[in-house]
Amino acid sequence: MTRASLNALNQSLVNSANFYGNFISKLPFSSSSASSLQTIENSQCKPLLNPLYNLLPETRNPNKIVDLISSSLKQNNSQLTLLQNHIKPLIPHLGCHEITRVLLRFQSDCSSALTFFNWVKNDLGMKLSSHNYCYIVHILAWSKNFSLAMNLLCELIDFVKDCSNCEDLFESLVSCSKDCNFDAVVFDMLIKGYVRKDIVSYNTLISGYCKEGRMQESKYLVHEMIGNGISPDSFTCRVLVEGYRKQGRLVSALNLVVELRRFGVSISSGIYDFLIVSLCREDRPFAAKNILGRISQDGYVPKPDIYNELIKTFCRCNNVADALLVKAEMVRKRIKVNLVAYRALICSSCRIGKTHEAESLMAKMLKSDILPDPHICRVLIQCYCDQMDIDKAESMLSFFAKKFRIFDTESYNVLVSTYTESGDMEKLMELQDRMMKLGFAPNSLTCKYVIHGLLKAKRLYKQKLLGS
């Protein structure tokens, strides 16, 4: 038989198959939906594909769709996208039964099974059945991918909840376990999945009440949760604490945390961090330090930022001694003090006139490889000028310029202003020369101070002449 006659025979078979396929599709027992699989039901309700489909080429034969997809998955998971275009006419014939068949073929290869499941759900946009979900959950749990299994189980809970005919998921999981490998932990996960989903409902209600400032109703719901055996999670605690903080009721927030701990609720370190920082921002460092001491006994390990925040707050409240105690504790625990904390300590020491302590702190800061900033320079220069220690102020200004390339014009102007008060213009001009050689450039304020100094010097000279 020639190639031409073979081609003619093949075309004849295809045409015949198409004719009979169209004929059968019009029979009463066939589906009227274009996207559903044309099947003949047997006594066990399993679909039997039309045998005439076997007369079609493989890529147009619905009987081959499971084999084609399985073959592509075995080659490379990324082949599904290419296959999608190749078998486009067959996609409407990919039903829930065919999806299950593919999943069962790859129950020992959870990666391929999950790739296929996501391809059907996301790329093809098909609505999967609850049994399709049950099979992929079993496959993932059997392969010890418990996190992914739990996520899909929660999706399944939502899926069943939204369906008009409420299914018994436990029965569905048991039914599907007969056809594939399974781990009994799936049934424990189902219970946890249902618990994870109140919790979402409770948290939504609690969050809504907190946003409206109805903290009493929120607290009642928390008690109801605990009474129903549902433990509040970190989101629940955070929403409640933030709700109390917005109302300026941090004490109530602290009392709630203590109460939740009595009920055995685990409080995350993030909640404690939030409470301590909130107390600091309300300028209540002693309360913050007190709660830090209490929770540290329970294993809470504060981050360096928490200690630094405490130091900054104590300094802002002019409690330098307590700030230094916190710093000493950090040194003892080998926790690094940051620039913000050192700046607060130096500024606070200068504010109360303790320049020696401020210099000592800066020396320790430099030893820790933390470089000063213009603000520290400014505070120190101002402090020495206030004490009329002009030589020390100039020496410090030169040190910052030479060592750290900090040319702070504001600090320079403070020094110029101090010289003008004395009325000694000769010394002021000499200072100008020295500073310009270092790299300081006068600005409009500098000129204003110099003019003020000249006027004052002139006035003093006149007074001197009149006095003589």
TrEMBL record:
Give residue ranges of the PPR repeats: 198-232, 233-267, 303-337, 338-372, 408-442
Coiled-coil region list:
none
Q: Which domain of life is it from?
A: Eukaryota
Q: Which residues cross the membrane?
A: none
The question of whether Repeat is a record keyword is answered with: yes
Pfam families attached here? PPR_2 (PF13041)
- Record's keyword terms, sorted: Repeat
Family assignment from sequence similarity: Belongs to the PPR family. P subfamily.
Q: What is this protein called?
A: Uncharacterized protein
